[in-house]
Fold this sequence. Notes:
There is one protein chain. 43% of the residues lie in helices and 15% in strands. The protein is built from seven helices and nine strands. Helix 3 packs parallel to helix 4. 46% of the residues are buried.
Amino acid sequence: xxxxxxxxxxxxxxxxxxxxxxxxxxxxxxxxxxxxxxxxxxxxxxxxxxxxxxxxxxxxxxxxxxxxxxxxxxxxxxxxxxxxxxxxxxxxxxxxxxxxxxxxxxxxxxxxxxxxxxxxxxxxxxxxxxxxxxxxxxxxxxxxxxxxxxxxxxxxxxxxxxxxxxxxxxxxxxxxxxxxxxxxxxxxxxxxxxxxxxxxxxxxxxxxxxxxxxxxxxxxxxxxxxxxxxxxxxxxxxxxxxxxxxxxxxxxxxxxxxxx
Length: 260
Ligand code: NAD
């Protein structure tokens, strides 16, 4: 979805989006491209990377593969100003439902995946901050699960709580280097991931209607709406914003629609 309000505020900038071959990441990569950035997509399966982006293949659990993919992307783009750490996976259950191996795997993807990507990208972002001040940023896709206390999401929530704390700590570590670090907290976003969850229900259409009805706005947020928030935090217009979590949840976190 392109809007008349979009300018080319990323012109001359280079961006890397992890998990950019589907859902929120793909919408973000496409939006940054429309707004003038050169964009690379790092994904374990980059087939769905938006046309016009540079696809690089890596699983974020593999530090060597991430290092090679980031280097390839930076070579192709001629530098790096914007990192969007978005690759992530879900997990359903209480602490009694997920085995240690599942905990390790989800934390490996959702938390260490961001750490590995940032480690590989930071030398390039430092160069951006030194050569082209005001451009360097990292934006993570976190979740309202980081703060909300959602049922049946113990492992996923713990992973996103770690993403929120990691984001704040990184913002502190890199602020004097001129690298801003923020995150977005989507509520329920209508992406292929949610589609896969709905498909497991006996009546996916009825489940989708019920899920929409549970949202304060009456509908899930879209991947494009989350992408717009990520792009804002990554844009030069957000030069005064670091160490912030921006909710894109249709009011799920802030509103109490029933009297208490
Ligand atoms: P999605 O499944 O549509 O897309 C995720 C992308 O990440 C895919 O292209 C996948 O190949 C890639 N990926 C997954 N694991 C990877 C790995 N180990 N290495 C490399 N790439 C990998 O999901 P989405 O809904 O767009 O979710 C994107 C992010 O948004 C995730 O971090 C998720 O936790 C977060 N989020 C989603 C929602 C939601 O309701 N959809 C809500 C809150 C937060």
